[in-house]
Design goal:
The complex is a heterodimer of chains A (about 500) and B (about 220).
Chain A lengths: L11 H69 L5 E6 L5 E4 L9 E7 L7 E9 L5 E7 L1 H51 L15 H33 L1 H17 L3 H32 L8 E4 H18 L3 E5 L5 E4 L1 H18 L5 E8 L3 E8 L31 H11 L3 E6 L4 E8 L9 H10 L13 H7 L3
Parallel strand pairs in A: 7-9
Antiparallel strand pairs in A: 1-2, 1-5, 3-4, 4-5, 6-8, 9-10, 10-12, 11-12
Chain B lengths: L1 E5 L3 H13 L3 E5 L2 H10 L4 E5 L7 H10 L6 E5 L4 H9 L4 E4 L4 H13 L9 E4 L2 E4 L4 E4 L2 E3 L3 H12 L5 E2 H9 L9 H13 L8 E4 L3 E4 L4
Parallel strand pairs in B: 1-2, 1-3, 3-4, 4-5
Antiparallel strand pairs in B: 6-7, 7-8, 8-9, 10-12, 11-12
Helix pairs in contact in B: 2-3, 6-7
């Protein structure tokens, strides 16, 4: 049955309006009822008082002057006020009219309403009071009840007019509100349809009034941005797999072909197989790395987050790499504050720090020094890994987080080109900021974590999208984990 | 060792079974979870190798049921589900070790051997011996031929793990997992470096080499053959 109604009548805001009109109307009705009743009672009482004072006066005259005096006075009063507001009637014991300008009544004592039907006041309604006289007759005094009736009519009229106006306004307002809401919702669903049709970059327009709809739209847009990133990352993984795994697979194929053509002895076959296995391992490693990045970027494992002792984690990573640095004749130093706690996944954090250190060691020549230092502010914990290697040119810094991106000169060094992408993915998952700066000479990678008492996982999407939009600062200052700056430039 | 292999992929199952038989193990194969559970409950196997995704009863629930029934046969999960989450759930379900497909066969052999040697009832050992090398777990000291060797805590842990598996091959990933608690593969030769330092301290200046590199597989602590 609702389907047949125009769309506007089916909106929830319109139904809400109806509900409001209903409850508000009921209360106004009660209010008016009480007012009407109170005014009527008040007016009736004042009419009673007027009639009663006249009756008392007449009764006094009767007592003092007898029937004749009363009759004379009634006649005199009738002569004075033929049109009211007071009307009189004096009847004898048989009910015959002795004097007065009212039609005879047969009601006995009491108060009643009557219609005055005489030539002087043909259509007057009056409020009457009859009393019995000692001779068995009745004296009736009536007062024109026009003021009371007039007031009643006025109240009803005011009520009618105001009710009609408010109903009109309420319906109008409700309709307007519904149209407005419908229009905004229509905007959202139109955007949703566009997005469903494949336009992932589409966003819902915001009116900028800061109302609850704008808040909703902002949240939805943030969600869409996050989804777009996720979809884009899936797309990129497929592209990466298609393009970047092609090279090693081709090499593997060539090796096998070569073996088939040229291998003569068992030893040669064995060597070829060995080569194939190591090629294959490299491919699998790349593949695993890609999967891992995709898995992390999809943001799923956040529920495994715990408080992690970052100080202890950093020390153990340093301990793992210390002997390697010595072997490469590099100096690996660490300045780690105690008791640093962050919110996150221990394993992923270990991998992130390990990747950064590995990256520094791999790209620095022997004799270089690599330093890890921590610093804190009330809200942030910063970990800076600096090296004295060749560094990364400022214009290339934005790109190094891309999958398979490798600087021209490091093409020859071993590695899959996924290390920093993984670092970035893990950092984003932990809402950590990541920053590359010049260490003059060398590179400084700074990771900025939120202090654990304020884990803001809900802001993940914003952090991610803003981080991508934010150009990495190319500061030339000496590398220091400057936490105050981090508060400004970290993800918000 | 008597091993039950629960794996539905016929080709892979045959490959694994044949390889383990070549190593001298007795291998029984089943292809479904329900069948696997019945076999595992009945016959005294020394080790179960379980695929996570098998028809009938999946590997995870199979192991859960087995453990709930009070069966403590060591279990090695062999699976393509390689996420951190998957490993954690596997180990929590009662698995003893986890190997992700694709794997190097030598890795499987090493892990199987390690699980087989794991004492079923843990007898508290306080001293480990290999030839004239002696590691005291209580005083945390290492002596070779009576001479005290100074080791860093991590080196001590490394040597302890190797000596607990004396005579068996221990792979790089096993060492990373058990000594450093690292569950990803650092691309650099972290393990090699640490082993070579340990070797310098333990083997240098002594007649017999105890820490051996097994090419393509890992490391092994044993006396000269």
């Amino acid at each position: 049955m609702f389907a047949a109604l125009p769309r506007i009548l089916r909106t929830s805001s319109f139904r809400l309006t109806l509900l409001c009109i209903g409850s508000f109307g009921a209360s106004v009705l009660i209010l008016f009822g009480v007012m009407y009743w109170a005014a009527s009672v008040y007016m009736s009482n004042s009419l009673d008082a007027a009639v009663d004072s006249d009756i008392t006066e007449l009764a006094d005259v009767l007592q003092v002057g007898g029937d004749a005096a009363l009759e004379a006075l009634v006649k005199e009063r009738v002569r004075q006020t033929p049109h009211g507001p007071m009307f009189y009637l004096l009847q004898d014991a048989k009910g015959e009219v002795v004097a007065g300008n009212l039609l005879p009544v047969r009601g006995g004592e009491g108060r009643f309403e009557l219609k005055v039907r005489n030539s002087d006041a043909p259509h007057v309604t009056a409020h009457a009071h009859s009393i019995a006289l000692p001779d068995g007759g009745y004296l009736t005094v009536a007062v024109d009840s026009f003021p009371r009736n007039k007031m009643r009519k006025l109240i009803l009229w005011v009520f009618g007019c105001s009710a009609a106006t408010s109903l009109l306004l309420a319906f109008g307002g409700g309709a307007l509100m519904s149209v407005n809401l419908l229009r905004r919702i229509e905007t959202i669903s139109r955007a949703a349809r566009d997005i469903m049709a494949g336009d992932f970059s589409r966003r819902i327009p915001n009116r900028g009034t800061g109302d609850e709809f704008d808040h909703l739209v902002a949240s939805l847009n943030a969600m869409l941005a996050r989804n777009e990133v996720a979809i884009e990352s899936v797309r990129q993984v497929s592209n990466d797999i298609a393009h970047d795994l092609r090279t090693p697979l081709t090499r593997l194929r060539q090796r096998l072909e070569l073996a088939q053509r040229q291998a003569r002895s068992v030893e040669e076959w064995r060597r070829a197989a060995q080569g194939c296995i190591s090629d294959m391992d490299a491919i699998l490693e790349t593949f695993g790395g890609l999967l891992r990045i995709a898995q992390i970027e999809s943001g799923v494992p956040t529920r495994r987050f715990t408080k992690v002792d970052l100080s202890e984690l950093l020390r153990s990573v340093i301990e793992v790499y210390q002997p390697m640095a010595e072997e490469k004749e590099q100096r690996l130093t660490a300045d780690i504050a105690s008791g640093l706690i962050v919110w996150g996944d221990r394993e992923l954090l270990t991998q992130m720090v390990a990747n950064v250190i590995e990256n520094a060691m791999k790209h620095s020549p022997s004799g270089a020094s690599i330093g890890l230092a921590t610093s804190t502010s009330p809200t942030m914990i910063a970990v800076a890994v600096s090296d004295s290697g060749p560094g990364i040119p400022a214009e290339e810094r934005v790109h190094v987080f891309r999958r398979f991106y490798r600087l021209e000169r490091s093409r020859s060094t071993p590695g899959s080109g996924l290390g920093l992408s993984l670092v970035e993915a893990i950092a984003a998952l932990h809402l950590a900021g990541i920053e590359l700066t010049d260490n003059g000479p060398g590179l400084c990678v700074t990771l900025r974590f939120h202090a654990p008492d304020q884990p803001p996982p809900a802001r993940y999407c914003l952090a991610k999208s803003q981080q991508e939009a934010r150009p990495l600062p190319a500061s030339s200052s000496q590398c220091r984990p400057d936490t105050t700056e981090g508060e400004r430039s970290g993800p918000v | 060792m008597k091993i039950l292999l629960i794996e539905d992929d016929r080709e892979n199952a045959d490959y694994v079974a044949d390889g383990l038989r070549e190593e001298g193990h007795l291998v029984a194969q089943v292809a479904s979870g329900a069948e696997g559970l019945i076999c595992a409950m009945g016959n005294g196997f020394d080790l179960l190798i379980v695929d996570r995704m098998i028809p009938g009863l999946d590997g995870l629930n199979l192991v859960k049921s087995l453990r709930a029934a009070g069966n403590h046969t060591p279990v090695l999960f062999l699976t393509a589900l390689g996420g951190v989450e998957d490993r954690v759930s596997g180990l929590n379900a009662g698995g003893d070790d986890y190997l992700i497909k694709p794997f190097a066969f030598s890795e499987l052999v090493a892990r199987v051997a390690a699980l087989g040697r794991r004492p079923h009832a843990t007898v508290a050992e306080t001293r480990l011996h290999v030839l004239d090398l002696e590691l005291d777990l209580l005083s945390r000291t290492v002596r070779r031929h009576g001479k005290l060797i100074e080791l860093q805590p991590r080196e001590f842990q490394l040597l302890e793990y190797l000596m607990r598996h004396a005579g068996q091959v221990v792979t790089r990933t096993m060492l990373l997992e058990h000594v450093w608690d690292i569950h990803f593969d650092p691309h650099t030769n972290v393990v090699e470096t640490h082993i070579s330092r340990l070797r310098t301290k333990v083997d240098k200046g002594f007649a017999a080499e105890l820490i051996h590199t097994v090419r393509g597989a890992g490391y092994c602590v044993r006396g000269p053959a």
